[in-house]
Amino acid sequence: METSVNHLDEEGLKETIRSLLNSDKVKLWLEPYSTADGSKSARPSELIKKYSETLKVSETLVEETLEQLRRHSTLKFTAKRKYQETDVATIYVRFSQGSNTSPNSSGRSQENYIETSLHTPVNEVKEIIGNLFKVAPEKLKLISLGKCLSENWTLNDYNVKNLGKILAICLSDDEEKLMAKDEKVDPEQDEKIEKTKKATEMMINDDVDDWYNLTVADQNGKSFDMPVEERKALAVAMMLHEKGKTCMKKKNFGLALVYLLEADLEFSKCTSQLLELVDNYALLCLDIIWCYFIMQQVDSLPDAERRLLITEERLVKSYGPEMERVQRVRGSCSQEVAVMMKLHLMQGVLSFYKREHHKAKKFLDKAEEELKSLQVDKEDMMTIMEIGYSEQEARLALRFCKGNVSQAIEHIMTKKQERRKIEEQEKEEKYRKKMAKVLGKTSSGQLVDASLYKNLTSMGFDKGATLQALKKHDNNFMLAIEFLQTNPNLRLPDPEAKKKKLKITDEMISQLVSLGFDADVSRATLHHFEGNLEEATAELFNLSGKIPKEWLDKVAKKVTSAAAAGGVDGNGSTDESNSAASAASGSASNMDTEEMKKFLEEEIIDGFNDEQDTDYLDLNVDDENNVLQEFKAKLASILDH
């Protein structure tokens, strides 16, 4: 009985025949299989018949595979000799065009090779590959050895060798635009990646640190401190990972892989101890492996194997050998079962490609058992949905409660209450942090109490007068009320009113200096009050000229970092011409704080907050089930023979 190509994977067949050739010491690049110039010689009829009978596949399939291997070995032989003589390397390139790829599709990838020096910069390599595949170089992202290649580095910097392999991903969904001549290239995808990194870095800088606070905890819920640089790297990595997962949901696996490998680079800046305490890096590796598989990157199997080992090790440390840590903390481990199912599925696939068939069967059987535990009864889902809950809520709850409908409904209600409570707490905390910036500090240097301010203004007192009362009396509620009642007609500027930024001039500083205040202190205070001379003067008198150190540090930092670019004058003010240029530019480097905040909120934070806890628990396991059944069938066909 002959096995069809559907049951015996093409790459698996190629590897099997390659192994047989090595055992038989057959050299396809030499006579009698190839001529001196590398052309095909006589048909190896005996070899074809022998392997066809051994593998139970058609002679036609064996002949086609042998010819592919012969061409590859001939090219390899020629490339080695050329590199020794000329130092010109041959690099295999797999070009992936188009974003929507399903697990069982053949995809739209092409293979070819380029010849270049290993000291060639990546941007020039992009031009060579772009010319080869008739696409704009700006649209290409190059990946090799599990890393995205940066344009300013060379192939040698990334340890790419002669006969190395590069995956070239075209980030555009519109093939016609890419193929059209003289078409203007839209760098939107590259720009989004840069904006994501830039915005996330800004998020954890001092200027916006109180706007979004990142904390890290292990599976026991214990949080720990991190150095600033590691906190920055972790924040960027997690946000890039979220963007990658969003692309995966949209079946845009090419762009997803770029985001995920960028996230991997940021994770590498964190200490190994940190990554061992949480499961984030393990989940990232698992997503990268899934993208490799969907995009049929068999060449990336060594990197996939390395990542699978890391994933398994980190998950065991995070969850416990039998997931007992998760069970103890959460009371259920259904989310982690989904993660382990995907891990075992990928381990089974990798073992299959390595021809470790019995090992593959063990992993696939385990994945099948775990996948069954994630299945939910459709009638039970409909029962819960009829009450008014969403499909996702029903599926999540049933998985969490192992199919018990009444417990699932109670679980949904509890989770909703918890979410509302958290939202209220976050809203209150956001208000407190926002008002801390607006209200400033009292005469003794402590922050004005936002809750006292809110209570007093809700009683009808003037906002500006209320702020003055709390500052003057160091947050003493009773003394503040007495002050306001004694001065019922006092009206001061509304501290919550949006203020127009004014340019800080030398004349303003001179005026404050003439009142007896230090020049640097005057400049920092004007900067804090965004150029409002009246408010700066009042605050300097209120504080007797002793302003908080962070006001001085903030101005010094801004002047130092921006003066070199010509965007800030000596007083810490933004030059108007440069501001106009920045506003006109859409690049990530010129986005101001407000633009970055908006980008973060719209593009990243919303999805991050809403989905991070349910991504794996709410897996649509159809794709995973299809892959499982496909490889079980392939495996059964091999083991039966």
Automatic annotation (TrEMBL):
Location of the UBA domain: 375-415, 447-487, 503-543
CDD domains given in the database record: UBA1_NUB1_like
Matches recorded under InterPro entries: NUB1, NUB1_ubiquitin-like_dom, SASH1/NUB1_homeodomain, UBA, UBA-like_sf, Ubiquitin-like_dom, Ubiquitin-like_domsf
Keyword entries, A-Z: Coiled coil
A Pfam family assignment: Ubiquitin_5
Occurrences of domain Ubiquitin-like (ranges): 89-169
Coiled-coil regions listed: 350-384
Gene Ontology biological-process annotations: regulation of ubiquitin-dependent protein catabolic process
Keyword Transmembrane: no
Compositionally skewed regions (Low complexity) per UniProt: 577-590
Domain of life where this protein originates: Eukaryota
Start and end residues of each stretch annotated as Disordered: 565-593
The name this protein goes by in its record: UBA domain-containing protein
Native organism: Helobdella robusta
UniProt lineage: Eukaryota, Metazoa, Spiralia, Lophotrochozoa, Annelida
GN (gene name): 20211306
